[in-house]
């Protein structure tokens, strides 16, 4: 994960190690190197610009510490700025005062929504919740069955249209699932919705219709980290089309660069809440900006 950026930054810092104090030229050269490292990691340009401006300002400014040498100071500043662009604090689910808490997943096909629904359900169960999974992706032929398999693995029931009831209406399924959750005392409802291969008006409208029918407490935008800056463009389209409260980043295990993780919060203003790091249900956790920054600088 993020190997390229990690290697690049390590070499920037090691070139500072022999310096007694940093001249303006040293700071400019360092800023240039960090800029290249971020651009190579596929971080969006506005994010890179802000990041570099902050690092330069802080390295030049009054933050001269007696306890740290110049290289350590730059590492500290970069670490803090990384945490900042990754979202600062860990953002947890905001549970509804009156259950069920409704979590709706939105994103493109293949982003990892159905897998994430199972992961989130398993994780919530481990936290003492009683989730219900809802199959409102009636577009993809095997989506309902896939969710049922995932639900079984997670040990979480799945609410799906009755077999043989014809093509279901995803909005009706979502609406009925809330009644079912109340009836069977599920405290969280996780709604899997249909995606398409690309941003599509019909898909967006369906997500809007489901949103309006169930008033989710949290809308999670699920996105594949491996697509880099494309993730940012898709995020923007979903933000404009449906809106969302947080991001679930998937396939971080295959993301050598880190551009999506480092850009999406700054561009959309919404925090990354969950990280998915493999195909197994347990490859999933809350997203911790400080730990992620630590891994990049490790
Ligand atoms: P959906 O179309 O958005 O519902 O996506 P799926 O949940 O069907 O996932 C698409 C593919 O990505 C499947 O083959 C998953 O096993 C795989 N996948 C999902 N999450 C991850 C992850 O975090 N890491 C890896 N390596 N693969 C994942």
Task: Compute the CA-based radius of gyration.
Answer: 22 Å
Q: What's the arrangement of strands in the largest beta sheet?
A: 3-2-4-1-5-6-7-8
Shape: elongated
Number of helices: 11
Could you provide a short overview of the structure?
With 298 residues, this protein is α/β, with parallel strands linked by helices. It has eleven helices and eight strands.
Report on the structure:
The protein has 298 residues and is an alpha/beta fold. The chain is 49% helix and 13% strand. Strands 3-2-4-1-5-6-7-8 form an eight-stranded mixed β-sheet, sandwiched between helices. Helix 3 runs antiparallel to helix 4 and helix 9 runs parallel beside helix 10. The mean pLDDT is 92. It binds guanosine-5'-diphosphate (GDP). Guanosine-5'-diphosphate binds next to helix 5. Keywords: Cytoplasm, GTP-binding, Hydrolase, Nucleotide-binding, Ribonucleoprotein, RNA-binding, Signal recognition particle. It is an enzyme of class 3 (hydrolase). This is Signal recognition particle protein. Part of the signal recognition particle protein translocation system, which is composed of SRP and FtsY.
